[in-house]
């Protein structure tokens, strides 16, 4: 039944055949696997730089040569292939193509060909026009109001009548450049005349809008007042790293900050401002009921350093606008005086021999030689205390200044200044002459403080305006009103 075989114990008969068959099948499978392995070892792309001269190398060379020959055989010829040329387009075809292209947009949207009229088309004797035209124009710098209307298509006579109507409500010069004019032009009887103005509307001023309407053939002006809240805008904050940048971040306009810094510089050193100091600005501000806002100049500037609070209010004194502190003291000026006449120094201050009296005495001023009739100006701001004949001084003018100081101008040929008049530094007060005890045309200039003569060449003065009386009362009332404004307006 069983026998010893190469596979161990095997059965006889049919069983043995079956085992042998299975053994043969195993032998055939191994042969197939070895064939596949040989195929995998076949290199179709031979490296012609290695194993030169071997059978594999020659096979690769033959393959490469065959491929190159095939490519060369299949390559196209070097001669161009002849083909038919399209005929040139005619005029009608070019117009048709142009109508389908983008080019018409560059020629005013011309669409090319147009359909020819047929017997059903009737030519119009006159093309219709719109019954109304709405136009927006802008008033330019130095532009005339009537001129803007005529440029928009309004007739000259009607433009002038419209300008006269507007001028009855507001000066045409007060209308700001850049103002937008909205116009409606109506139907005209024929093309030879300008269109009539049916309506004109614009903002004449911040608080006033104007309309010109046509009623029953006549132009009528309609004024539309606009409610405006003029509560000033108050801005506060800490100086921090920089006063200008901190104020700008808080919302203050640049011009108002520049004015504020200049005002501070007249009362303290800007370099002394610390980072923890607090600034306080009040600026002009207007809010219209229509929503627009307008910011103006600086009205008040304050600085709180903790130990000291500086409050400055803009005030007009004697026609001159300056910044006064809370006590009513204005800008302080320190420095020398202006030279009262264009001339040369002929005699200094001190004891000298008088050329007319014939003896030595104190010369209480300085003399400037100058041609007859040369203008004499005030050396500094002041008020005329005396103007007239003054003994040996001849025609003489004396000015009073702050700090109980006076300046005198003698030997004038003619006096211009009048007693009680306020004069500015550099203002004309008279002309050079030789009146009184004088040997020739010159100006005798003298300076007194508390009644004692001073050398004009060495005087340095400090001058500040001081409010008093009713003016000081109004000043403090205005300051109190502004300080009651809340932050943010």
From TrEMBL:
Key words of the record: Hydrolase, Signal
Cross-referenced Pfam families: Peptidase_M23 (PF01551)
SUPFAM superfamilies: Duplicated hybrid motif
GO terms, molecular function: hydrolase activity
Leading EC class: hydrolase
EC number assigned by the record: 3.4.-.-
Protein known as: M23 family metallopeptidase
Provenance organism: Sphingomonas natans
Residue span(s) of domain M23ase beta-sheet core: 361-456
């Amino acid at each position: 039944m069983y026998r010893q075989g190469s596979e161990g114990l095997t059965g006889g008969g049919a069983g043995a055949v079956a085992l042998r068959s299975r053994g043969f099948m195993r032998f055939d499978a191994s042969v197939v696997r070895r064939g596949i392995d040989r195929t995998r070892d076949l290199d179709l792309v031979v490296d012609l730089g290695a194993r030169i001269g071997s059978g594999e190398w020659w096979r690769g060379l033959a393959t490469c040569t065959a491929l190159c020959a095939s490519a060369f055989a299949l390559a196209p010829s070097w001669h161009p292939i002849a083909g038919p040329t399209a005929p040139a387009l005619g005029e009608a075809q070019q117009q048709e193509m142009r109508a389908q292209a983008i080019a018409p947009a560059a020629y005013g949207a011309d669409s090319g060909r147009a359909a020819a009229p047929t017997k059903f088309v009737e030519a119009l004797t006159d093309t219709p026009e719109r019954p109304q035209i709405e136009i927006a124009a802008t008033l330019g710098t130095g532009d005339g109001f009537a001129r803007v209307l005529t440029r928009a298509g309004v007739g000259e006579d009607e433009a002038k009548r419209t300008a006269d109507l507007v001028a009855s409500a507001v000066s045409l010069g007060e209308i700001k450049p850049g103002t937008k004019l909205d116009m409606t032009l109506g139907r005209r009887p024929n093309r030879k005349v300008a269109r009539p103005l049916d309506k004109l509307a614009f903002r004449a001023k911040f608080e006033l809008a104007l309309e010109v309407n046509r009623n029953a053939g006549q132009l009528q002006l309609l004024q539309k007042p606009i409610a405006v809240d003029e509560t000033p805008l108050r801005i506060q904050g800490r100086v921090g790293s920089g006063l200008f940048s901190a104020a700008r971040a808080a919302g203050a306009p640049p011009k108002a900050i520049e004015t504020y810094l200049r005002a501070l510089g007249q009362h303290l050193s800007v370099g002394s401002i610390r980072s923890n100091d607090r600034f306080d600005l009040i600026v002009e501000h207007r809010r219209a009921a229509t929503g627009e806002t307008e910011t103006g100049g600086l009205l008040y500037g304050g600085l709180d350093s903790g130990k000291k609070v500086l409050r400055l209010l803009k005030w007009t004194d004697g026609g001159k606008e300056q910044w006064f502190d809370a006590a009513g003291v204005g800008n302080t000026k320190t420095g020398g005086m202006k030279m009262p006449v264009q001339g040369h120094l002929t005699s200094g201050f001190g004891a000298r021999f008088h050329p007319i009296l014939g003896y030595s005495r104190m010369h209480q001023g300085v003399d400037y030689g100058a041609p007859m009739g040369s203008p004499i100006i005030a050396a500094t701001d002041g008020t005329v205390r005396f103007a007239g004949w003054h003994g040996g001084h001849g025609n003489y003018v004396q000015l009073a200044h702050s700090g109980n100081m006076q300046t005198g101008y003698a030997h004038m040929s003619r006096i211009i200044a009048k007693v009680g008049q306020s004069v500015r530094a550099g203002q004309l007060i008279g002309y050079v002459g030789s009146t009184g005890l004088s040997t020739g045309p010159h100006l005798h200039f003298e300076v007194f403080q508390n009644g004692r003569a001073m050398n004009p060449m060495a005087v340095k003065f400090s001058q500040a305006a001081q409010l008093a009386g009713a003016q000081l009362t109004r000043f403090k009332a205005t300051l109190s009103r502004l300080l009651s404004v809340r932050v943010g307006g």
